[in-house]
Specification:
With about 375 residues, this protein is α/β, with parallel strands linked by helices. It has 3 domains: about 110 residues, NAD(P)-binding Rossmann-like Domain (Rossmann fold, 3-Layer(aba) Sandwich), CATH 3.40.50.720; about 150 residues, Rossmann fold (3-Layer(aba) Sandwich), CATH 3.40.50; about 80 residues, ACT domain (Alpha-Beta Plaits). It contains 13 helices and 16 strands. The strands form 3 sheets. A 7-stranded parallel β-sheet has the order 8-7-6-9-10-11-12, sandwiched between helices. A hairpin with a 2-residue loop joins strand 14 and strand 15. Helix 3 packs across helix 6. The longest helix is centred in the C-terminal third of the chain and has 21 residues. The two termini are about 15 Å apart.
Length: about 375
């Protein structure tokens, strides 16, 4: 029986996928084989030897100690694209909130309660304080043209905007999905210079922290409107507050409130609602469950953030999965350890992702698992 621990509430349509005769799924599972998580912080957790995988029902994995997991042979999955439609729709809303002072106007309208027949006149008198602009004909600059940025680019074209985007990791599939009117540039500074609205759709890491800072804001048009539905840390708080005060930035719409920006004039702080739809939570839960099942039962890795995508069909007596460091001569040591036992490798696949690799071996006979585990650089060996 495989035990699956849930650290957050996971949609039942995901947890129900697990075969009850093979899996026990609960928020109190002991010695888990796998963990399903959304936003729970895991950096202080200790992981047992039984733990094979962690699936994040969402895209970001900042709450998971990814490097530590790799060292222990724990595969960390996420669910890219499962919540992209939800975030895309909120980003469209964000475009309109950046253009027009709708939240402020709604709050002002609440103050008219109790004014009776005067409400209509007061509305007509006061509405000019909340006038805004239109997005049609304006230029949307996108940093990141993946699952969310690409969708937003296409919608912006349909809404009559000009669109320019930058993505150094743009896949062929993502590029082909863009409408032909979307201009893609290899120079991020082109985006800063052209954008009336600047929207961020890139992952947060050490390289992307403070992508929007005093220097990059200076490259933008005066009165640029910035949208951040990716990660709060992509924008330097002090820089954005200063730019809003000077008028260099006209509006900042962010789905990741911080104490530094909450309450600042012309900041629209949304409480991280990007993926908070029933459909998105269902999609993430189903995708996460399927990733875990496929890895636990078949050794297939798909959408891992610390190990490569890899799969191999079993035709021999056993399928052996070896997670290991991506270093020279290690593969030859693995194959030698199998051959020395007299087993035969019918098929084999090896894939690498930065410093980590996975080797799958379809073996006839009995592989020497202890010998494989003894190889320096090998962190996990499984027989399926």
């Amino acid at each position: 029986m495989y035990n699956v621990l849930t650290l957050n509430k996971i949609a039942a349509c995901g947890t129900d996928i697990f075969d009850k005769s093979k899996y026990s799924v609960s928020d109190s599972a002991e010695n888990p084989t796998a963990i399903m998580v959304r936003s729970a912080k895991m950096h202080d957790m200790e992981f047992g030897n039984e733990l094979l995988a962690i699936a994040r029902a969402g895209a970001g994995t900042n709450n998971i100690p990814v490097d530590k997991c790799a060292e222990q042979g724990i595969v960390v999955f996420n669910t890219p694209g499962a919540n992209s439609n939800a975030v895309k729709e909120l980003a469209v809303c964000g475009l309109l909130l950046a253009a027009r002072k709708v939240p402020e106007a709604i709050e002002w309208a609440k103050t008219l309660k109790g004014k009776g027949d005067e409400v209509g006149k007061l509305v007509e008198k006061g509405k000019s304080n909340y006038a805004g602009g239109e997005i049609m004909g304006k230029t949307l600059g996108l940093i990141g043209l993946g699952a969310i940025g690409g969708k937003l680019a296409n919608i912006a074209i349909s809404l009559g905007m000009n669109v320019i985007g930058y993505d150094p990791f743009l896949s062929v599939g993502a590029a082909l999905s863009l409408k032909p009117q979307v201009k893609v540039t290899a120079n991020i500074n082109d985006v800063y210079a052209a954008a009336d609205y600047l929207s961020l759709h890139l992952p947060f890491n050490a390289e992307t922290k403070d992508t929007i800072n005093k220097e990059t804001i200076a490259l933008c048009k005066d009165g640029v409107r910035i949208l951040n539905f990716a990660r709060g840390e992509l924008v330097n708080g002090a820089a954005i507050v200063e730019a809003l005060a000077s008028g260099k930035v006209a509006r900042y719409v962010v789905d990741f409130p911080s104490d530094e920006v909450i309450g600042v004039e012309n900041v629209v702080a949304i409480p991280h609602l990007g993926a908070s739809t029933e459909e998105s939570e269902d999609n993430c839960a189903v995708m996460a469950a399927n990733e875990l099942i496929d890895y636990i039962e078949n050794g297939t890795i798909r959408n891992s953030v610390n190990f490569p995508n890899v799969e191999l069909a079993k035709s021999g007596d056993m399928l052996v999965s070896v997670l290991h460091k991506n270093v020279p001569s290690l593969i030859s040591q693995i194959t030698t350890a199998v051959a020395d036992k007299g087993a035969n490798i019918e098929n084999m696949v090896n894939k690498s992702k930065k410093e980590w690799s996975c080797t799958l071996l379809d073996v006839t006979g009995n592989a020497d698992i202890a010998a494989l585990e003894a190889i320096e650089g090998v962190v996990k060996v499984r027989v399926l």
